[in-house]
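Page 37, continued from 36.
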């Protein structure tokens, strides 16, 4: 007999039947009577409308760091506002924070102590930790575990870095020379470079995302990180690579067993392809997104045109990608004006 959803049933060694309502985040409730009987369904409906409890909250002290973390990770604030990748990163930080300081009273976290904790981290890690702990403390204020947010005035030293290395045309040519058209590595490079998208979007692309438009075929992309929807014309070079690399799968890029790549698996594999081509460690999959924006800028595209290609949300964010190209173009223009004089 099929049981109602979230109901588990078994018969013990003495022949007595047992039924329990078991749903993630809800109390475990014994259900009496025969499944589907009026009395059974009345208890089932009562269990379904029960108050959710934070996973792990019953094993920790109320009001402790561990208890608040458990409640936060089961809340709408945690699941509803960030991408899956950000949730995964923050869950890891919260797990480490809870393992080290879970017994401490959450209401007694002084700003000086949190600041000292952040100072012990490397610059980029400190920024991720601050964002995670700030989100946790804001949740604590909302649920009245804290009166004020102890992270509100914590500032970190600015990180002087241009981020991921932007591939040069020579590096792109070196990769292409080693991996010929028709191979998986060449397909990966073409998708990254000509779509200007993140790895998390490229690994999900497939032929079902190709749309026919009056101007020719285009790739439909809904960015995993931002939810932004794009329609990107397929560059002739990308079209040639796609035609030379037939695929019977839902995604263009698949593993040796025919499964889609996960983000980290793809990054490791792409690193191996770069190593095979003799490229330096600075060359990464994300650096091709920067190279695509650089090429757009060098070809005279406006900021809005580049944003329409890459899906960046702000001009400030885009400037980091096109800084080198803008400098070179302005220098050429200045030299041309000097020659005319």
């Amino acid at each position: 007999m099929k049981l109602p959803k979230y109901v588990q049933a078994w018969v013990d060694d003495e022949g007595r039947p047992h039924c329990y309502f078991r749903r993630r985040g809800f109390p475990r409730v014994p259900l009496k009577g025969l499944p589907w009987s009026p009395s059974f369904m009345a208890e089932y409906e009562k269990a379904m409308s029960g108050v959710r409890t934070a996973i792990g909250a019953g094993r920790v002290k109320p009001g402790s760091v561990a208890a608040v973390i458990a409640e936060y990770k089961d809340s709408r604030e945690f699941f509803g506002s960030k991408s899956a990748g950000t949730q995964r990163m923050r869950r890891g930080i919260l797990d480490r924070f809870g393992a080290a300081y879970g017994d401490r009273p959450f209401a007694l976290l002084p700003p000086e102590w949190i600041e000292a904790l952040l100072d012990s981290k490397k610059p980029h890690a400190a920024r991720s930790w601050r964002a995670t702990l700030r989100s946790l403390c804001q949740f604590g204020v909302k649920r009245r575990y804290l009166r004020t947010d102890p992270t509100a005035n914590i500032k970190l030293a600015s990180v002087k870095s241009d981020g991921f290395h932007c591939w040069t045309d020579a590096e792109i040519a070196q990769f292409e020379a080693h991996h010929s058209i028709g191979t998986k590595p060449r397909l990966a490079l073409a998708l990254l470079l000509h779509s200007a998208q993140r790895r998390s979007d490229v690994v999900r692309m497939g032929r079902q995302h190709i749309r026919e438009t009056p101007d020719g075929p285009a790739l439909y992309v809904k960015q995993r990180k931002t939810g932004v929807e794009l329609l990107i014309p397929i560059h002739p070079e990308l079209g040639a690579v796609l035609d030379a690399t037939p695929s019977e799968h839902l995604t263009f890029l698949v593993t040796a067993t025919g499964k889609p790549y996960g983000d980290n698996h793809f990054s490791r594999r792409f690193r191996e392809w770069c190593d095979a081509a003799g490229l330096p460690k600075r060359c990464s999959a994300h650096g091709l997104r920067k190279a695509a924006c650089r090429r757009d800028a060098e070809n005279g595209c406006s900021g809005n045109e580049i944003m329409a290609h890459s899906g960046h949300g702000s001009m400030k964010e885009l400037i980091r990608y096109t800084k080198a190209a803008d400098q070179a173009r302005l220098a050429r223009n200045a030299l041309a004006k000097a020659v005319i004089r």
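The longest strand covers residues 216-222. Flag for discussion at group meeting. DSSP finds 14 helices and six strands in the chain.
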